[in-house]
Structure formats: structure tokens, C-alpha cells
Amino acid sequence: MIIKTMPIVRSCSVMECAYNRETACHAGGITVEGPVPLCGTYFRSQRKGGIQETGTVGACKNDGCVYNDSFECTASAIEVSIHYTDRPECDTFTQRRIVKEAWDV
């Protein structure tokens, strides 16, 4: 059996998240949702929870990202912050290039 090491959440600036302690994620495995790469594990709470270790990426549902391979994140680490959506987003998200074939033009 092959066990893949999950990418860590290197930093998370979303302080009100239940899994955030001192700009570090402590969720056992976040889910990045799509089509906007949002942190689906996020929720607001004054009470903090999670694991002792640094949080990891458990799944990525955004198949438009270059790091998504069969819904698994292949980046070595990700960063999360709030942008225009008022929800935490994966800052490591990189849009997959769509290559048009000559006959598609």
C-alpha cells in the first residue's frame, strides 16, 4: 500500500477560523473546493480545535488547478487567506493552461 504525504498548510491568515492558532492551520485535512479555490473546512468559532501538528490538504475539488491530480493536491505546501470572496481561498491555486489544438481554432 502506498501512503501519500499530504501537503501542509504553510500559513493561514484567517484568524477567526476554528482551526487557526497563531496564523497556523491545525485541521487534520482541509478540503479545497471549486470552482473558486475556497477552504471548505473553514468555519468561524472563538473556540479553537484541530490537531497539534500543522494542518494538511486532504482533498482538492478544483480540477482547474495545476496541482490537482485525481482530486489530490500535489503542491508541497499551500497558503490560505481571504481575498475578494470574504471566504478563505487557496493562494497556491494556479490555473491549469488550456492548450487548444490547431483544429480547435
Ranges with pLDDT <50 over ≥5 residues?
Answer: none
**Approximate strand percentage:** 25-35%
- Distance linking N and C termini: 44 Å
H-E string: EEEEEEEEE
- Give the number of domains: 1
Mean pLDDT over all positions: 90
Describe the overall structure.
The protein has 105 residues and is mostly beta strands. It has one domain (1-96). It contains no helices and nine strands. It has a three-stranded mixed beta sheet with strand order 1-8-9, with no helix packed on it. Strands 2-3 form a two-stranded antiparallel sheet. A two-stranded parallel sheet has the order 4-5. A hairpin with a 2-residue loop joins β2 (20-21) and β3 (24-25). The radius of gyration is 15 Å and the shape is elongated. The model has no long low-confidence stretch (mean pLDDT 90).
Question: Quick gist of this model?
Answer:
This protein is mostly beta strands and 105 residues long.
How do the strands and helices of this protein lay out in sequence?
Elements: E1 8-12, E2 20-21, E3 24-25, E4 30-32, E5 57-60, E6 68-69, E7 72-73, E8 77-82, E9 88-90
Parallel strand pairs: 1-8, 4-5
Antiparallel strand pairs: 2-3, 6-7, 8-9
